[in-house]
Structure formats: structure tokens, C-alpha cells
């Protein structure tokens, strides 16, 4: 069993190099088996070749997943019996596993490396540096492994996750118990205008230029304009009602229709800023429309009576899908949600969800229950004020960030790079999740190379589903080379 060839390789090590699991099992039985020959075989786990390789290291370097799994099982201390010896009981140490982990990572053998990492202990309780992590990406199974491998088993002091619906893990994927989840609402102009204050900071344009990121700007959403046919459906349904044939409700329908048609035809060059947009919307609505953006108040902006507005909101309709099937839905879901978006149709270009969640994460624990629009605006402006003053004391500042390269991810990265520069002794490490290569989206490769050039570690996740959004981020946020 312990014979070695000219290179110092034992039969067990050679079997591991070639990934021969059956041979490995024969040469190295598990701890439950006893007997002198068996214990001698298990003692080969500790014998190194002239190159300093143990069987575990060799299997890890070759990416032999099942062999590694079996060797780790063999490494459990054997039960004391007449054949036990100090050599067997101490046939390996943690450094063997650490070296094997390095080899697996170098070879890109993620699943093997993850097994080894787990062998070293719970990734979140190992001694060493404590990391504060902000993660705004899709929580896939593969992403959980890559996070732990990236941190190399170091202890996480705080893990805060941006968790809009798209990022939520699929069934069967468990998040660490310590994770804190943020899902801050970002609807309406008041919230986006407050968030924009966080990008009006001295020195931020210079950081943005260095990273090749365009600062967020206002613009008209052609996508929302294209959804106004859904609001026209509400108008059509309202006109069928007896209480909308005359009086205030009939007038309200006319005002709503004028707004919808004018918005659908509006050009970006007709609005030169958020104040101009406010004046434009106000020409169709009653005063105070920015404070009445919840579905239950939305129609009151045009003068509908409360009773009629409520009944219209709850009206059921048939929604015909592209495949020809029909489903029941309400005008609230079909129409009012797009009318609500139309009020913010001139807004910050792109999504700000991850930025809003980052701001709340920097402020403290996730809010419970979900905050109102007014509460979101207050918190965002408190953090913006601290950033403007350079007063970072009391703010949670991550040491590590994981993102998936969408528009709001890149803006969050920009903000954290700025904060880390102003925070003494702080340095931000970044891991980026991208979908696998796709000929339909060659832009993914450009994004990967650009992020790597800024010392971001990039990995490709087979379960990531945001190629189109990454392409959009390249077009709208990353400045041309």
C-alpha cells in the first residue's frame, strides 16, 4: 500500500490522479472498516509525492469530484480499536485541505472546491477577518457556492441582500441564516428624485469617469408610453358604467383620456427636467398628485368619485395573452399599475432598485413592515445628507460587493467605490455574476472584460437570466471605450 515509485507516488495517489474512484475505494476504505491492512491503506492519505502532493491534492487538482468526496469521507477520524495508531488518527491536517482547495480553485473546479471549503468548517464561523457583504444579484445555487469560495472561508459579519422578485432564490436554494433581505419600494417620482440626491456629490463625477460609468439622468420612458393601450382599456370599461355617463365621473374620464393620449405622443425634448415634468402632469390633474400614487387614490387625481374609483379598480376583465389563452384579472393589475408608472414616465433612466436597497442597508436593519413612500424619501435623504457632508460614521459600509452588472448594480458599485474612498482604511472587493456566453448577446464578453480591468472577479453562472439587462446596462450606463 505504501510503496512509492520514482516520483514518490503511491498507488492511491496514482488512482486519484486518474480519477479512478473504484480503485481508490479499494485502496482506501472508510473509517468504519477496521483491520491492519485497512488501517495501513488509510495511512496512505498522508503520504506525499516528491512534488508535495497528497492523494486529496491530486484529486482536487484534476477536478475528480467523486474521488474528493470519498477521500473527505475517509478523513473522518476512525473509531478506536486494536489496529488504531497515531499515524492513522492524524493521517491528514487542515493544511492538506487548504492546499487542495487552492488547486481546485486554480483549476476552476468549483464544485470540488466547495466540498473542500465545507470540510474546513462552516464558512460563516471560521476564524479570521470578518467581512461585510452587500449582494445584489440572482440568488442561484451556483451563486451561493461562488460567494463562499470567493471569500475563502472567512467569517461574514454581515450579509445584506437586495431582494427584488427577480433576485429571489428558486425553490431548494437556501440562503445563509445570517442574511438580511431588503425590498424597498421605488415607485413614484419622489423616491427617484431623493435617490438622485445621492449622486449629486462632490468628487463623484471623477469616480464615475474612472470607472467608465455614466451618472444617472432623467428621460422619457418609451416602454411605458407603449403600454398606454392598457389604460385605454380602463377608459373603455369606465364608459360602460351608468355613473360615468355625466357629472364629475364623465369629466374625469375626459381628463384621464387627454392625459393618456398626450403622454403617449410626448417627446423627450418637450420636457427639460423634473420640474418641467411636474408642471406638465399638473396641467391634467388636481393639485397634490405626487402624494396620491397608491392604487386606491390614483383615479382621484382626475376627479373620479371615491366610490366609482374603488369599483373601477376592482372591476374584473378578461386578459387575452399572446398564446391566445384568456385569464381573469382586475383593472388594478391590468391598467392602474401602468397609469401609476405613467405618472413617473419622465424619470431617472433605468432601474434604481439595488441603489435604494443599498441606501437602506447602509442606514441599518431591513425596515419592517415595508416602508411607505414618505418613509423611503426620508431615509434616502438622511443618507444623502451624510454622504454630502462626508460623515460616514453610523453608516454600514460593506467591504465586499457581489452584483450582476445591471444598470442599478453598476450605479450601486459607483456609489460604494465613492464611499470607500472617503472611508479611511476601507477597500471594496467586487465579485460579478454574469450569464454564460451567448451568441445572441456578444456584449456579455465586453462587460466581463471591462469589469475585470477594474479588479472585479467575474464568474459565469449557468442559471443567471439577465443577459438582456446586462446588454442594456452596457448601452445606457457604461460609457463607450
What share of residues are in beta strands? 5-15%
Shape: elongated
What is the subunit organization of this protein? single chain
Count of spatially separate domains: 3
pLDDT < 50 stretches:
80-92, 122-127
End-to-end separation: 60 Å
Percent of residues in helical segments? 40-55%
- How big is the Rg? 30 Å
What would you say this structure looks like, in words?
This protein has 481 residues and is an alpha/beta fold. The chain folds into three domains: 11-120, Ankyrin repeat-containing domain (Serine Threonine Protein Phosphatase 5, Tetratricopeptide repeat), CATH 1.25.40.20; 130-216 and 350-476, no CATH class; 220-348. It has 23 helices and ten strands. The protein has helices spanning 11-17, 21-27, 36-43, 55-62, 65-74, 86-89, 94-106, 110-120, 141-151, 189-196, 204-211, 222-225, 228-239, 247-265, 274-282, 295-298, 306-314, 331-343, 353-363, 373-389, 407-422, 443-452, 467-476, and strands spanning 130-136, 155-162, 180-182, 218-220, 316-320, 326-330, 346-348, 400-403, 429-435, 457-461. The strands form three sheets. A six-stranded parallel beta sheet has the order 3-2-1-8-9-10, sandwiched between helices. The chain has a two-stranded antiparallel sheet with strand order 4-7. Strand 9 (429-435), helix 22 (443-452) and strand 10 (457-461) form a beta-alpha-beta unit. Helix 1 (11-17) packs antiparallel against helix 2 (21-27) and helix 4 runs antiparallel to helix 5 (65-74). The chain is elongated, with a radius of gyration of 30 Å. The chain starts with 10 loop residues before the first helix and ends in a 5-residue tail after the last helix. Keywords: ANK repeat, Repeat. ANK repeats lie at residues 51-73. Pfam families: Ank_2 (PF12796).
Amino acid at each position: 500500500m505504501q510503496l512509492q515509485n520514482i516520483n514518490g507516488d503511491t498507488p492511491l495517489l496514482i488512482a486519484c490522479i486518474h480519477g479512478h474512484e473504484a480503485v481508490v475505494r479499494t485502496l482506501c476504505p472508510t473509517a468504519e472498516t477496521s483491520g491492519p491492512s485497512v488501517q495501513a491503506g488509510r495511512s496512505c492519505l498522508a503520504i506525499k509525492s516528491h512534488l508535495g502532493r497528497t492523494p486529496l491534492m491530486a484529486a482536487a487538482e484534476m477536478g475528480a469530484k467523486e474521488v474528493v468526496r470519498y477521500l473527505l469521507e475517509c478523513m473522518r477520524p476512525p473509531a478506536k480499536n486494536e489496529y488504531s495508531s497515531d499515524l492513522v488518527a492524524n493521517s491528514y491536517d487542515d493544511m492538506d485541505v487548504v492546499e487542495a482547495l487552492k488547486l481546485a480553485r486554480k483549476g476552476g473546479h468549483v464544485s470540488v472546491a466547495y466540498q473542500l471549503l465545507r470540510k474546513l468548517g462552516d464558512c460563516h464561523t471560521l476564524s479570521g477577518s470578518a467581512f461585510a457583504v452587500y449582494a445584489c444579484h440572482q440568488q442561484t445555487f451556483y451563486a451561493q457556492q461562488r460567494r463562499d469560495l470567493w471569500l475563502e472561508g472567512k467569517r461574514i459579519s454581515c450579509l445584506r441582500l437586495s431582494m427584488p422578485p427577480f433576485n429571489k432564490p428558486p425553490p431548494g436554494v437556501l440562503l445563509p441564516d445570517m442574511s438580511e433581505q431588503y425590498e424597498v419600494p421605488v415607485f413614484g417620482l419622489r423616491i427617484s428624485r431623493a435617490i438622485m440626491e445621492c449622486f449629486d456629490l462632490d468628487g463623484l463625477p471623477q469616480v464615475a469617469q474612472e470607472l467608465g460609468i455614466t451618472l444617472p439622468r432623467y428621460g422619457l420612458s418609451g416602454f411605458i408610453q407603449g403600454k398606454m393601450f392598457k389604460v385605454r382599456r380602463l377608459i373603455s370599461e369606465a364608459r360602460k358604467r351608468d355613473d360615468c355617463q355625466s357629472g364629475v365621473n364623465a369629466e374625469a374620464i375626459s381628463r384621464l383620456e387627454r392625459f393618456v393620449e398626450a403622454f403617449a405622443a410626448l417627446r423627450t425634448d418637450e420636457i427639460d427636467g423634473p420640474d418641467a415634468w411636474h408642471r406638465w402632469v399638473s396641467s391634467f390633474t388636481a393639485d397634490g398628485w405626487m402624494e396620491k400614487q397608491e392604487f386606491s387614490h390614483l383615479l382621484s387625481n382626475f376627479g373620479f368619485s371615491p366610490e366609482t374609483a374603488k369599483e373601477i379598480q376592482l372591476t374584473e376583465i378578461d386578459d387575452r395573452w399572446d398564446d391566445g389563452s384568456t385569464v381573469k384579472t382586475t383593472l388594478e393589475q391590468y391598467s392602474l399599475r401602468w397609469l401609476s408608472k405613467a405618472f413617473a414616465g419622465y424619470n431617472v433612466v433605468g432601474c434604481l432598485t439595488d441603489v435604494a436597497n443599498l441606501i437602506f442597508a447602509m442606514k441599518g436593519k431591513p425596515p419592517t413592515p415595508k416602508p411607505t413612500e414618505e418613509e423611503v424619501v426620508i431615509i434616502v435623504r438622511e443618507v444623502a445628507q451624510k454622504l454630502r457632508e462626508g460623515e460616514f460614521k453610523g453608516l454600514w459600509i460593506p467591504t465586499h460587493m457581489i452584483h450582476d452588472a445591471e444598470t442599478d448594480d453598476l450605479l450601486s458599485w459607483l456609489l460604494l467605490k465613492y464611499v470607500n474612498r472617503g472611508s479611511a482604511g476601507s477597500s471594496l472587493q467586487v465579485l460579478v455574476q454574469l450569464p454564460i456566453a451567448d451568441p445572441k448577446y456578444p456584449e456579455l464578453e465586453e462587460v466581463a472584460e471591462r469589469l475585470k480591468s477594474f479588479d472585479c472577479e467575474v464568474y459565469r453562472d449557468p442559471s443567471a437570466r439577465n443577459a438582456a439587462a446586462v446588454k442594456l446596462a452596457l448601452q445606457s450606463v457604461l460609457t463607450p471605450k
